[in-house]
Design brief:
Metallo-beta-lactamase, Chain A
Length: 282
């Protein structure tokens, strides 16, 4: 009986420690914005209290490690998943996410390349109660205190199923995620031509944080986009690759404007914590 009592007490103590760790991990009133280290791909996680938003899922199941690290162990619900565009380095990890988590809303791009593997994701989503919505320029989604302003794709440019790779990149969902005075520009694989169009239309505002388009490819970030956004921090989601990402041209451009630049291949997960007024990097 004594051993059983000690065992129960030990289990209760462990639960208490785990709960305390979870509370410490997600401080009240703080937004954690994490660029997950998923290798050569994209996955950005935003956590504020019990609200979770996942933008892209990377090329593999490493996104599950990121979710396990930053979400409370008892919380199996993700309020919103955004798939910026349907290339495998952005969506493949989402297949397993939809199997393991309840997802309330899935914001997905209509411009897509088709393909068997993407159909697996579509079938997985179709077997859930997840609400599927499509982006429109000018739409704002609010989750608690977090606002997500959709500035791309432009409605007239969406081509639908079996689009070309170039048009899929150009139509990447671009979101300005904001909490009070903190803004983060999340760009998917936005193309230079699409970036220039957003700048010319005045849709890009000053931000504190930018996720560099297309893993630092030279067919992503433009100088005009950088000048319009005026970020203080640039994050490049990248892994071992044969494409030359991030391209030296892009690194030189960021250095030209003295923008602090962090890479997931060098830093691992990159976490920014903010209360909407001040922010710091972990």
């Amino acid at each position: 009986m004594m051993k059983l009592t000690r065992l129960v007490a030990g289990i209760l103590a462990l639960i208490g420690v785990l709960a305390a760790l979870t509370l410490f991990q997600t401080k009240k009133g703080q937004l954690n914005l994490i660029a997950c280290d998923v290798g050569q791909g994209d996955a950005v996680l935003a956590v504020m209290g019990e609200t979770q938003i996942l933008i892209d899922g990377g090329p593999n199941n490493l996104v599950l490690d990121c979710l396990a690290k930053y979400l409370p162990f008892y919380d199996r619900e993700i309020e919103l998943i955004i798939l910026t565009h349907n290339q495998t380095d952005h969506f493949r990890g989402l297949i397993e996410v939809f199997k393991r988590y309840q997802v309330d809303t899935f914001l997905v791009n209509e411009a897509n390349l088709g393909g068997v593997e993407y159909q697996v994701l579509e079938n997985e989503v179709g077997g859930t109660k997840t609400k599927v919505i499509y982006p429109e320029e000018g739409t704002t989604i609010r989750l608690g205190m977090i606002y997500l302003d959709i500035i791309n794709p432009l409605r007239e440019n969406v081509l639908g199923a079996n689009s070309s790779e170039e048009s899929v990149n150009a139509n990447s969902i671009v979101v300005n995620l904001r909490l009070n005075n903190f803004d983060a520009l999340l760009t998917g694989d936005l193309s230079p031509e699409a970036a220039e169009s957003l700048v010319q239309r005045g849709l890009v505002k000053d931000v504190e944080y930018i996720k560099i388009p297309h893993h630092g490819s030279k067919v992503g970030l433009t100088e005009n986009l950088l000048l319009a956004a005026k970020p203080e921090l640039a994050v490049i989601s990248v892994g071992k690759n044969s494409y030359g990402h991030p391209h030296q041209e892009i690194l030189n451009l960021l250095n030209k404007y003295n923008i602090k630049t962090l890479r997931t291949d060098n830093e691992g997960d990159i976490k920014v914590e903010t209360d909407g007024e001040t922010w710091q990097v972990y």
